[in-house]
Each structure stands twice: as structure tokens, then as C-alpha cells.
Amino acid sequence: MPRVSAPTAPDPPHAAASVDAGTDAAVEQRDRRPAGRVRRALLALVARLHRWAESGHAGKAVLTWNALQGSVVPGPSEALLLPLGLADPPKAPRLAVWAAAGAMLGGIAAYAIGRWAFEPVGEPLLALFGVGPARFAQLAGLFRERGALLVLLSTMSPLSTKLICIGAGALGLPFPAFAGALVVGRGARFAALGWLVRVAGHRMLATLERRLGRRVDDLR
Question: Of 82, 91, 131, 175, which is most buried by a Cβ count within 10 Å?
Fold first, then answer.
């Protein structure tokens, strides 16, 4: 005669509540750490810029975010361009122009930090992103030989463009070579991104939400 398994009793309500409480406590403890505070500040900034964009200033909001992100603020460069472009796809190319302009301004600001404020500002920023003096010294020779190429590659790869721009200024990469590489790389990146928003935007939005740790709609 086949054996019949007894039905499994559902978890009591207090057990589920204790799990939720434990999860909330873990999130709260994480947010109390320095990295958690930075993350909360970043999300608050993105939310404020979203509200500004929705009030009729989308281009200026995108430019502001990309200028900050390209110089001193951590976070994905697509944080505003992508959701705003998805909300109104015909405007995505125009928003991409604003994003490229902001990113170029941010890169120039990062170059200026490296050139004229490396010790008080540039070094702490490099340390914040995990680049210590020893690592920076190792990269110095490569910068002097292939500085413009590094800037160009950083605009279209996982390399941090802001850190490369700071390094370019600190190590004396001539400004015309730096600016040319930055304009070409940022222009190409955001032109492609504006087009991709129209043809594969929903996948890109899912990637952005994974990086932010929440839905973009929750930022509004």
C-alpha cells in the first residue's frame, strides 16, 4: 500500500514576522555603514533629479547628473537617461546629447582636480574608489605612454572614466589630447546609448535597477 505523506503545516504567522523583522534589521544595519549612507545619499540625489526632470527640465537634469557622475559622484551614468528615455523614446536622442555634454563637463572637472587639486581632492577620491598610491604609481608609466588611449577606452569600457580623467590631469596629459579623446569617446557612447534606449531599453532598465538595488519608479 503506498505511503501518504502528511501535509506540511504552514509556517506560523510569528515565524514569518520574525523573518521579515530579521530582514529589515539587516537592511537597517547595512544602511548604517558608511557605504550604506553613501548609497542612500546617491538614491536621494537621483530621486531629486527625477522630480526636477518631470517638472519639465529633463535635459538639464540629465546634464547635471552626468556632470556630477563624470567628476566626483559614484553611480551609473545611465541613471537618468535610461528611465527618461524609456518614458518618451522619441526624446532619447536629444537627452543623449545632454548626457554627453554633462559627461564631458564632468570629465574636464575631474581633469582639473587631478591637475590642480590632486592632493586635497584627487587622492582621497582615488582612495575612495580603491586606488592607492602604489597602484597609481604603477599606472603612471602607462598613462605617459598611452594616456589619450586610456581616456578613450575608459569612456566605452568598465574602466572608471572619472578616475582616468583625474589621473590624466595629475600626470600631465596634454589637455588637447585629453579633450579630444574624451569628446570622441563620450559622444560615441551616448549616441549609441540613445539609439539603444529605443531598441533594447527595457533590458537596460532591468540592469540599471539591479545596480541601484530598487525599481526606478520607486525613486520618484
Answer: 82
